[in-house]
Amino acid sequence: MSVVQTYRYLAPSTLAQRSLALQTSGGPAPNPRFFTGFLTTGQAAAVGLLAVAEVARTRYHRPVSPASLDPVVTGSRDRLRFESFSGCCGVYARLDVLPTGLDGDVSEHGTTNVDVNTPLREALARVGGLDPLHLSVGPDDLTVSTLDGAVVEKKVPLPARWLRGFAEVQVLAARFEPRAELPAAEASAFLRRLPRGSERSVLWVVPAGRSLRLTSRPVPGAVCLAGAGRLVALQPMLRFAKTLRVYGPTVPPGAAPAPSVWELDTGALRLSLTLSPEPYRGFSGEGAALAALAGDDVVDDADLISALLSWDPTIEPDRLAEQAGIDAERVRGALAQLGTAGRVGYDVAEAAYFHRVMPYDAGRAERDNPRLVGARALLDAEAVQLDGTAATVRSGDQVYRVRQLPDGGLTCTCPWWAKHRGQRGPCRHALATRMLAAERVEERV
């Protein structure tokens, strides 16, 4: 499913006399201006912005013609964030321009898309090492007053997968820990050593001194590298980077493929790529947010937390819990709900959430998650019968058995669980079982 968005730009984005004018569209106000000033590392910033735009134009799985989706930009007090998903939704890219990377003021707080057109990409590629780069994100006042009739409209399909991807990535990334840190020279050597033909395979890496070593199977401390060819967007940025950091979840022996984050840090900029667990898998179908969205109070909690969010660079769940008078677990559920509208992201480098504004309501959780809709339908039909730590679920003419594992996870006898083995979130039967069990616990309190 796609939603057709109309992007209105007062003029195309341009780069002239080393002054980069990025045209914006939408947000809390039409064509907002987020920043005017210099980027302290002009060439590196140009390369990073090109990388984010290139990911938006690329389908890594079953490549087709380039997409025309424009990156999303968020102004947040002391920094700018540029984000995109690949056309296949299996790679999430983000360029964070940190306070030391900006010499100017963030004059507007909000989120919108930016026009990165073909002439601009060609101009950015020509930015030299000592060239200053002045950045204006959004039209200035003169442009607004003199170009009222010069509106550039783009009608592009904005996939609902992007919104689901935003929701899934922030839930998954919140479970990640730093696993390795490499100097830029070692990172470059490691990427060159990756075997050819690994674009569609799932590899594992473990820290080995100042570098990384490939292994054929998951071991404690390993990080999954699925579709190594998808790291190509990092290559141009390597010459500016000081370190490469790798993040991932805890991996037990025999674990299934997992997502990972690969982040280059220049000191003033951070360019990160988050890779889905397998090259053919998009983040939109991972189901990581389903458990957090299943609570009865999650919609009300999301409305409350939304009112408390500010434009601080990071969001502190414990502080929000104290302000809202609810526990931190409910806050995280509310953040997951807001994530379905693209309004919350997660920064692994700072182990913190951040706020963005998108023109979508948090109620999209129900419409965009058919498993959640199906689970609620099963509960409404009283089709779930609890039996200790297990449950019997009737779905049409079929009867399924849901059982609890020692680690608290749930298994099911349905075809979905047999196919995915819990790797893509719970099936609707397990989700309904968990929701009913939570209701019973609340009734006893």
Keywords, separated by commas or semicolons:
445 residues, alpha+beta, Proliferating Cell Nuclear Antigen, 2 domains, 5-stranded mixed sheet, 13 helices, 25 strands, globular
Short description:
This protein is of the alpha+beta class and 445 residues long. The protein has helices at 42-56, 118-124, 141-146, 160-173, 184-193, 290-293, 298-308, 317-324, 328-339, 364-368, 370-380, 415-420, 428-444; strands at residues 2-9, 14-16, 19-22, 24-25, 35-39, 72-76, 79-85, 91-97, 102-106, 110-114, 133-137, 152-159, 177-183, 202-208, 211-215, 223-226, 243-248, 260-265, 269-275, 344-347, 352-355, 384-387, 390-395, 398-404, 410-412. A hairpin with a 2-residue loop joins strand 23 and strand 24 (398-404).
